[in-house]
Design a protein that fits this description.
Blueprint (H helix, E strand, L loop, with lengths): L1 H40 L2 H5 L9 H37 L3 H59 L1 H4 L3 H9 L1 H13 L3 H52 L9 H20 L6 H57 L7 H4 L1 H25 L4 H59 L7 H22 L5 H39 L7 H15 L3 H15 L3 H15 L1
Helix pairs in contact: 1-3, 1-4, 3-4, 4-6, 4-8, 7-8, 8-9, 8-10, 10-12, 10-13, 12-13, 13-14, 13-15, 14-15, 15-16, 15-17, 15-18, 16-17
Length: about 575
């Protein structure tokens, strides 16, 4: 009984599954039926009737027949085939032959796609044909109007087009047979071929429009502006050469001769309507001409500079040589009293050697100016270099002269600073002797002796003949550092002594009751009398701080107040 139930359940499950699959296939067949009907009832013939408004000849007639045949095949063959296949698919589904039904459904889908492609192709070609006719009708009128306008422009401004006139007229004459061919193709219903002619004429019209715009400008440059500039440059060159300007280095004559030959070639290129390279070359020529104008102007400016400064340079060199010799003599005299570093002592000699070289350069320059066989621009550069070098030598010579003058001032300043340092050392020694302390440590005595030795070294260096100020400054700097360090350490020592005394006095009140404090203070007093002030300060500080934290800061504040009052 159990087996029978299982079998029944399985059969019911299979039946339900089969019914679900059949329902799915029925829905798919229904969808395909609707799409087939859409293809079948699409009003393609109504669309094709739009063609009848055109000339039903030639290409138009061929295309119309082709479209009609294509759609007849769709209706009479493909749609009939799809009807049969839909019937077979329904039959297979009813018999639960789903695999065969699926295969037929795929074939029907392919037929529908094929029919849809044919429909889209027909509509697209139809719209293109009708659109071409409309565009052709509008654009041909525009082209004819442009052709008439271009003809009027050429006739009204024949002179502006010069040698290009004949070829321009020929290019425009080519429009007439094209218009006639267009009319013939249109009359024959060949609208797409006529469209190709329109596109060709549009491109040609744009090209001619550019020619009509560019040719007058280019011819003006070639025939008028550039020849005028060439003549101006020739006249300018002639006038400047008559005024003794040297211009051969510019090679202007050769350039102008070649340019005149090139203008003939460019003019012929314009006549042949080959403007591709003419325009850029005209721009280059104008830049080259502007550059030659600048070069001629540069020569004029250079001549003015040379005329203004050349002769004056001789006096300048003479004056600088005289001044340098004076500085040289002064340096020789000063060296009896002061020792100069070898490098600085050589400055006047080096300046004189450099001036000798400049003198020769100037003499050669003056000869070139008199000969008038050199470009003034090169003469100006040479003169400018001599001027710059002269200014450098003058600056170096003046700097050296000021250094000589400052030697006496530096010596006096050094003696004054030495006196100041002596007084500072004396004050330091007096301050130590006046201080209430058992004595001065050996280390401090050694520092004081070192300071005395440094002062002695400076005094000795100031008594040398010739006087070496570099050595004086070096010794003086060492002395200053040594004395200032001694003074600072002396002040620190005196402050420490006062702190020790105050701390011991402060700690005395606890000696009777605190043996540890008493012991530490004894150690501090012993170190104090042995001039070991740092050790004494540490012992006293430990003793006071151990019984009363923070007391040291108060004692330090009191000592600072006492020092300020002194």
């Amino acid at each position: 009984m159990e087996y029978i139930i299982i079998v029944v359940v399985l059969l019911l499950a299979l039946l339900i599954f089969g019914l679900m699959i059949r329902r799915k296939h029925n829905a798919e067949i229904e969808r395909l039926e609707k799409e087939k009907m859409q293809v079948q009832h699409y009003p393609i013939y109504e669309e094709l009737t739009k063609v009848k408004a055109l000339n039903m000849n030639g290409q138009t007639e061929e295309m119309f027949e082709n479209w009609r045949n294509m759609w007849s095949e769709v209706i009479d063959v493909h749609v009939v085939k799809m009807d049969s296949m839909l019937f077979d698919a329904e039959e297979f589904v009813d018999r639960f032959k789903f695999k065969k039904a699926s295969q037929i459904e795929r074939e029907i889908e392919e037929y529908i796609v094929k029919c849809e492609t044919i429909k889209v192709t027909i509509i697209k070609e139809l719209e293109e044909l009708i659109g071409s006719e409309e565009k052709n009708r509008i654009e041909v009128e525009q082209l004819k109007e442009y052709h008439r306008s271009a003809r009027k422009t050429i006739l009204a401004h024949q002179y502006s087009f010069g040698p290009a006139l004949e070829n321009l007229e020929k290019r425009l004459e080519q429009f007439v047979p094209k218009f006639e061919e267009f009319d013939q193709l249109t009359a024959e219903g060949n609208y797409l071929q006529a469209r190709e002619i329109i596109l060709t004429l549009n491109g040609e019209a744009q090209a001619i429009f550019a020619l009509l715009s560019d040719i007058p400008t280019l011819l003006t440059e070639i025939q008028t502006k550039i020849p005028t500039a060439i003549q101006e440059l020739r006249n300018g060159q002639k006038e400047m050469e008559e005024q003794k300007y040297y211009l051969r280095h510019l090679e202007l004559t050769d350039y102008l001769d070649k340019l005149e030959e090139e203008l003939v070639i460019l003019k012929q290129a314009v006549a042949d309507l080959n403007l591709t390279e003419v325009g850029p070359r005209i721009e280059e020529i104008n830049d080259e001409i502007d550059n030659f104008y600048d070069l001629l102007e540069k020569e004029v400016v250079a001549k003015k500079f040379v005329d203004r400064h050349c002769h004056a340079m001789n006096d300048t060199i003479t004056n600088v040589v005289y001044a340098t010799k004076e500085v040289h003599d002064e340096a020789t005299y000063v060296q009896h009293s002061y020792r100069l570093p070898d490098k600085e002592a050589e400055v006047p000699k080096q300046c004189l050697k450099q001036l000798e070289v400049l003198q020769k350069r100037y003499e050669l320059l003056a000869i070139r100016v008199e000969e008038e066989k050199s470009a003034y621009s090169s003469l100006q550069e040479e003169l400018q270099e001599i001027t710059n070098e002269m200014e450098r030598i003058q600056e170096e010579q003046e700097k050296f002269s000021n250094m000589l003058k400052n030697l006496r001032i530096d010596e006096n300043n050094a003696r004054k600073e030495l006196d100041t340092l002596k007084k500072l050392l004396q004050n330091t020694e007096r301050m130590l002797h006046k201080a209430n302390m058992p004595g001065v440590p050996e280390e401090m005595d050694a520092r004081l002796e070192e300071a005395e030795e440094q002062i002695f070294i400076v005094v000795q260096s100031l008594q040398e003949i010739p006087l070496n100020m570099e050595a004086v400054h070096s010794h003086l700097l060492n002395t200053k550092k040594c004395i200032e360090d001694v003074h600072e350490r002396a002040e620190e020592m005196i402050t420490n002594v006062m702190l020790i005394e105050r701390m011991i006095q402060y700690g005395n009140r606890y000696r009777a009751t605190n043996a540890t404090v008493h012991a530490r203070l004894l150690e501090a007093e012993e170190a104090f009398h042995q001039f070991r002030y740092v050790k004494a300060l540490e012992d006293a500080a430990h003793a006071v701080e151990s019984i009363e934290p923070g007391a040291i800061k108060r004692i330090e504040a009191l000592v600072q107040e006492e020092l300020l009052m002194k």
